[in-house]
Amino acid sequence: MTSWSNMDRVGGDVPELSAAAAAEAISDDATMTVSGFGSVGYPKAVPLALANSGRDLSLTVISGGSVGEEIDTALVESGAIARRFPYQSTSIARDAVNTGNIALHDRHIGSLADEIVFEELASPDVAVVEAVAVGEDWLIPTTSVGHTPAYVEQADNLVVEVNAVQPRNLARFHDIYRPAMPPQREPIPLMGPGERIGDPKIRFDPEKLVGVVRTDHRDSPYSFRTPTDEDQAIAANFRSFLTDELERNPVFAETVRLQFGVGSLGNALMSELAADNFGDRSVSYYGEVIQDGLLDLLADGDLTVASATTLALSAEGQDRLFENIDTFAENVVLRPADVSNAAETIKRMGVFAVNSALEVDLYGHVNSTHVDGSHLINGIGGSNDYNRHAAVSVVALPSTASDGAISRVVPMAPHVDHTEHDVSAVITEQGIADLRGLSPRERAVELIENCAHPDYRAELSRYYEQSRKQGGHMPHDLSAAFDWTTGDS
Fold this sequence. Notes:
It contains 17 helices and 27 strands.
């Protein structure tokens, strides 16, 4: 495999600018697409220059996924962002969204690139992206790909931040492939997680390039909590469900393709897996994010390959990957999110998907994004891309929140991100509810008996019995359900 460690950071005759000069070239009300996914691979110097410019800005900012504080804290605090797509993950941005100071439109990751290219959501004026290297008509991303290829393709202008802190050999991870525009779109020619169907470079029209800004800022890494006793109990139940599923499901007779949602619980679950969970089967990862737990599985040989769109690692995980980049490059592939999250490829891979949530109701509807049905936490991300299209979709969550004061199994979800049709099973530290093939009434019994915390089972059972008296395919007592949500039950 090619080594990129000695390549020039900036090649060819390209204009170089200061961050302040690049920011000045961006109009006050620009629609700005940025690289970044999983809080890594995002531009840092130009957003900070915009935040510190003193201008009266009203920007629309479109990322692939979560980005760091330079965008979703500094730019927000400066009042520069008026509209945001499709996801945010900082407390400052969250507050601005929930007070209505920023208009955020949450979107599924898998279809977002098309929605930008087709100009269904917005028409980008400028793309500001981070790279390990750039030439006259190409760039190579850093620690994430996300929707950067589509954003670069669609934007009228392009600013590239070349980050000297990011190892140049990150190029070895990237496999850039752009689906064609419908109706000429052909099947994505990817048959296995380890295959490569593109090359490391994102191509662009040289006329778009405003300039190159040299930077040396690290990403804002993830911080994963130490697994709790609750996490470990969920992991034990997950292992039990996985073992049974591998024995009964012909999809997994020879190979298993896993996916875990981003976050501490997902990282804890994958950290609990080992080769003895899978027998003689080949095990690989086809998902959205590569987290610290996957590095352990790769290093131990329990995982043959990991395919995703971003390296959402802790600071320690980043250091580990950068120090062993040539080793990990043999079995890690980073793809555009419209490949990693495409319904077509998820279905083709037969993915076993595991994602977390805020709460689940008695009939299997899942709320992943809004506390009390109204206050946004982060966004839906790519969870429904996998929940809906995976061969098996698991929602894993604790049975309670706030030290047991709140049940996460509720009568009626006040906000629904994933419907009853998209979830195979729910797992808490209490047990497993396999919902496949069950009527709504049967699902309610399964969830109460197997997933709800004992402190709430009697109350949930009373709600269900009271609702049954009113009849219906999916019985509800709406007044009682809303009382439960508002804490008046």
